[in-house]
Design goal:
This protein is an alpha/beta fold. Among the domains are: 2-128, ATPase, nucleotide binding domain (Nucleotidyltransferase, domain 5, 2-Layer Sandwich), CATH 3.30.420.40; 379-574, DHBP synthase, CATH 3.90.870. The chain is 35% helix and 20% strand. Helix 6 crosses helix 14 and helix 7 packs antiparallel against helix 11. It is globular.
């Protein structure tokens, strides 16, 4: 049985393909179209999934989408009536719903086929149920509590549930207009980060400040006795005026969410080009801290309500790796699973899982520990691209040789673009589309931010560490497959890891497992033999663009930045090798 899953007409548009309950490929539209957070219809992602599997659309049994226009329909109508004065808002929402409900014609148009070629049954799966499924059904747990928490999807922002075997039981939800994601996004905008997906910048900035304003934020997001929360609506405009949401040429943009009351209480918003002051840093710390307070309020009540020791978390707020790293410390949960794409791209996978397990009653078989679901290229294909780019390179005959050469360059302090295997599904490069550096290089953080990534100087970098050494270097120990948690680095180790130690002594780690990422594991292990460090600095292979997908994009990124080398498959290019 083949199920094609989609996230469409929403930020981080994506597609995936499932065969008999196992995800065989998945990719975000942005990786192909090269526009970050692409929000249109994922026609190119669909084409990739089908071609990669050697299928046509007529081979698909079900097509699922992580949106259900019928969910909370009455509440949606009432909310829209309140905003009748905002004609454009109503027009945009109607157009969006129309596209979601005419999915078969959209697919036929995108693939250039007739609707009659599509025999698959279309299934609309509610947004948060898709999130819940994306986490629980691929987790290692037979039974677990589940939390989905984000901005909004199908009129809900939060959903709590219990998963057992191949079924999920929804317990409760938070509905429009109340949303922790909206709170975080509003203050992300207030702090001068206006673009879709900028929330992680506030998280990265927060350790530079003190949470001085948490008390002022408590009455903006208020905790409820039932373990949920609500917004003080006077600080936001989404429930009264509506918020403009556009995706011109595929790039999503959300208009201002916060009301003038925020300005009255917290001062003038920062312009995106204005310098960051200590006040901005303290506000970031306060927003992060109160966000964590709300998350742990929900989780602690959920644990007491269910009595379960396992927790699965998904949704956009589940990308908050700082909060994730504290879950097992600040709740009674003992085990946690968060998928590689907790945000909306992951609803493509989640909707297929809900259909297969919840709706069809099929048994679970797979625990997903890797995110390598995207495009891959042979050494011969890479050869052709390097020749086309007129770049000199050396092709080694084996992985062993390539790893030896690469590990030595890293030990010598080189900055290397590492392009291997399938692209990762999700926001993190996990050793297949990565820029790698010696973690002990003192200037690495500034060098990469200014000369390669060309981004804000406060942004941290992640340590990829061999799983066996986690306890030696970090104060907490756990499997962190998808770089989804931040842990404190042991104080005695921090001075030797300046490139990956954040200002507060923490690191957003990725645990590298020999049976999950064999080539990446071998590279770090060879680097360990040469340096004594079982860790590499790992950041995504890109420069203010989606993570590179195709060899040509990797070559172009290398040529316009100051990386020292790129290693693509077994082909190695060293700086100054252009003919």
């Amino acid at each position: 049985m083949y199920v094609l899953g989609l996230n469409a007409y929403h930020g981080d548009s994506s597609a995936c393909l499932m065969k008999d309950g196992k995800i065989i490929n998945a990719i975000e539209e942005e990786r192909i179209r090269r526009i970050k957070h692409w929000a249109g219809f994922p026609s190119e992602a669909i084409k990739f999934c089908l071609k990669d599997a050697g299928l046509t659309i007529s081979d698909i049994d079900y097509i699922t989408i992580g949106r259900n226009p019928s969910a909370h329909l009455g509440k949606k109508i009432v909310s829209s009536l309140k905003k009748l004065a905002n004609f454009q808002f109503i027009k945009d929402r109607v157009a969006n719903i129309k596209k979601v409900t005419s999915l078969k014609s959209e697919i036929a148009k995108g693939l250039g086929v007739s609707e009659s070629d599509i025999r698959a049954e279309i299934k609309n799966i509610e947004h948060h149920r898709s999130h819940l499924a994306s986490a629980f059904f691929v987790s290692p747990f037979d039974e677990a509590a589940i939390l989905s928490i984000d901005g909004f999807g199908d009129f809900s922002s939060t959903m709590i549930a219990i998963g057992k075997g191949n079924k999920i039981e929804v317990l409760d939800s938070v509905t429009y207009p109340h949303s922790l994601g909206v709170f975080y996004t509003a203050f992300t905008q207030f702090l001068g980060f206006p673009w879709y997906g900028d929330e992680y910048k506030v998280m990265g900035l927060s350790p530079y400040g003190e949470p001085k304003y948490v008390d002022k934020l408590r009455h903006i997001v208020k905790l409820k006795d039932n373990g949920l929360f609500e917004l003080n609506e006077s600080y936001f405009i989404h429930s009264t005026e509506g918020v403009a949401m556009t995706w011109d040429n595929g790039a999503p943009f959300i208009g201002r969410i916060f009301s003038n009351k925020v300005i009255e209480e917290f001062g003038q918003p920062r312009d995106k080009d204005e310098p960051l002051t200590q006040y901005h840093k303290d506000m970031a710390a306060s927003v992060q801290k109160h966000c964590e307070n709300v998350i742990f309020h929900v989780l602690n009540h959920l644990q007491k309500r269910t009595g379960l020791k396992n927790i699965c978390i998904a949704g956009g707020v589940a990308q908050n790796s700082v909060a994730n790293g504290k879950v097992l410390q600040l709740t009674a949960f003992e085990n946690i699973y968060i998928p590689s794409a907790g945000y909306d791209a992951g609803t493509a996978i989640g909707s297929t899982l809900w259909q297969y397990h919840q709706n069809l009653g099929m048994e679970r078989k797979y625990f997903v520990r890797d995110a390598y679901f995207g495009a891959q290229y042979t050494d011969d294909e890479i050869d052709l691209e390097l020749k086309e780019a007129n770049v000199s390179y050396k092709r080694y005959s084996s992985d062993v040789e390539t790893i030896e050469v690469t590990a030595q360059m890293l030990a010598d302090g080189a900055v290397i673009g590492w392009f291997q295997g399938r692209t990762e599904f999700g926001p993190r490069a996990l050793g297949n589309r990565s820029v790698l550096v010696h973690p002990g290089r003192p200037d690495a953080k500034d060098l990469i931010n200014s000369k390669i990534k060309r981004r804000e100087s406060f942004r941290p970098f992640a340590p990829s560490i061999l799983r066996e050494y986690v306890n030696e270097y970090f104060e907490q120990e756990d499997d962190v497959y998808f770089m989804e948690k931040v842990f404190p680095i042991r104080p005695e180790k921090r001075s030797g890891l300046p490139a990956v130690t954040h200002v507060d002594g923490s690191g957003r780690l990725q645990t590298v497992h020999k049976d999950v990422s064999p080539k990446y594991y071998a590279l770090i292990d060879k680097f360990r033999e040469k340096t004594g460090l079982p860790i590499l600095l790992n950041t995504s292979f890109n420069e203010n663009e989606p993570i590179v997908n195709h060899p040509k994009e990797a070559i172009d990124c290398f040529l316009r930045t100051e990386m020292d080398a790129i290693v693509m498959g077994n082909c190695v290019v060293v700086r100054n090798s252009k003919k």
